[in-house]
């Protein structure tokens, strides 16, 4: 099965670039700490998360949305590293910069169920995902849960793009292969997801 608009760039980031992004994410987390959010259904997510950039994706009893401030500290999210903006500009083909980078930390069997990224203003902007650390078994489906899905492994340094038909494809992480990388302090996987959340007046 090939999903139109899904592009995988295996090993796109050098080891040096990977380490720099991990360091930047954990440095930012000192000001905007990782936390485990609750879904609108009242269930805690298995991943820990934080955000970089002007907007951050959050979830709680009020629903899924973007906010300008960390829900625990009340402070603005840390700035997005220039390296991530450069990556967005190089691969997204978008006419405006990403304004959110969701940072998910997978440890201790964390996973991510099949979902669509639907909280953004304009679906013509793609979603760009960066894998760092342990390899993930990534599942990619179609626009409905009846559509077939396939799995592929995303290793550290891989980058994938969901655009066009794949922009609203269901996707998730079945599991993370613990110990497959030593990049993340304390073990695990970081996933950096860049999006354009706010509308753009072009």
Summarize the entry for a quick read.
The chain is α+β, with helices and mostly antiparallel strands and 202 residues long. It has helices at 15-31, 82-91; strands at 6-9, 48-52, 56-60, 63-67, 100-106, 112-115, 127-133, 136-140, 150-154, 159-162, 171-176, 189-195.
Can you walk through the features of this model?
- The protein is of the alpha+beta class and 202 residues long.
- The protein has one domain (6-195): Sandwich (Jelly Rolls), CATH 2.60.120.590.
- The protein has helices at residues 15-31, 82-91, and strands spanning 6-9, 48-52, 56-60, 63-67, 100-106, 112-115, 127-133, 136-140, 150-154, 159-162, 171-176, 189-195.
- Strands 1-10-7-12-5-2 form a six-stranded antiparallel β-sheet, with helices on one face. A four-stranded antiparallel β-sheet has the order 6-11-8-9, with no helix packed on it. Strands 3-4 form a two-stranded antiparallel ribbon.
- The mean pLDDT is 96.
Assigned CATH architecture: Sandwich
> What order do the helices and strands follow?
EHEEEHEEEEEEEE
Our measurement of the CA-to-CA distance between the termini, rounded to an integer number of angstroms, reads 35 Å
- Largest beta-sheet details: 6 strands, antiparallel
Structural class: alpha+beta
Integer count of domains = 1
- Secondary structure: helix percent: 10-25%
CATH-derived topology: Jelly Rolls
Unreliable residue stretches? none
Annotation field: number of helices: 2
Give the class-level CATH name.
Mainly Beta
Over all CA atoms, what is the radius of gyration?
16 Å
Count the E strands. 12
- Portion of residues in beta strands equals 25-35%
Shape: globular
Query: CATH superfamily, called what?
Result: Alpha-ketoglutarate-dependent dioxygenase AlkB-like
Average pLDDT number: 96
Order of strands side by side in the largest beta sheet? 1-10-7-12-5-2
């Amino acid at each position: 099965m090939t999903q139109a608009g899904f592009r995988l760039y295996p090993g796109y980031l050098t080891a040096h670039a990977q380490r720099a992004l991990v360091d930047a994410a954990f440095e930012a987390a000192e000001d905007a700490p990782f936390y485990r959010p609750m879904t609108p259904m009242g269930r805690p997510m298995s991943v820990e998360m934080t955000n970089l950039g002007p907007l951050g994706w959050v979830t709680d009893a009020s629903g899924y949305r973007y906010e300008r401030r960390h829900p625990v500290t009340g402070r603005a999210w840390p700035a997005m590293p220039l390296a991530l903006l450069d990556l967005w500009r190089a691969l997204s083909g978008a006419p405006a910069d990403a304004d959110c980078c969701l940072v998910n930390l997978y440890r201790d069997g964390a996973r991510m169920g099949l979902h669509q990224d639907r909280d953004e203003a304009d679906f013509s902007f793609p979603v760009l995902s960066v894998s760092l650390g342990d390899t993930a078994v990534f599942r990619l489906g179609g626009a409905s849960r009846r559509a077939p899905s396939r799995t592929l492994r995303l290793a550290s340094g891989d980058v994938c793009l969901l655009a066009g038909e794949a922009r609203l494809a269901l996707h998730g992480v079945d599991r993370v292969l613990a110990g497959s990388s030593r990049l993340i302090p304390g073990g695990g996987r970081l996933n950096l997801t860049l999006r354009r959340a706010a509308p753009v007046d072009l």
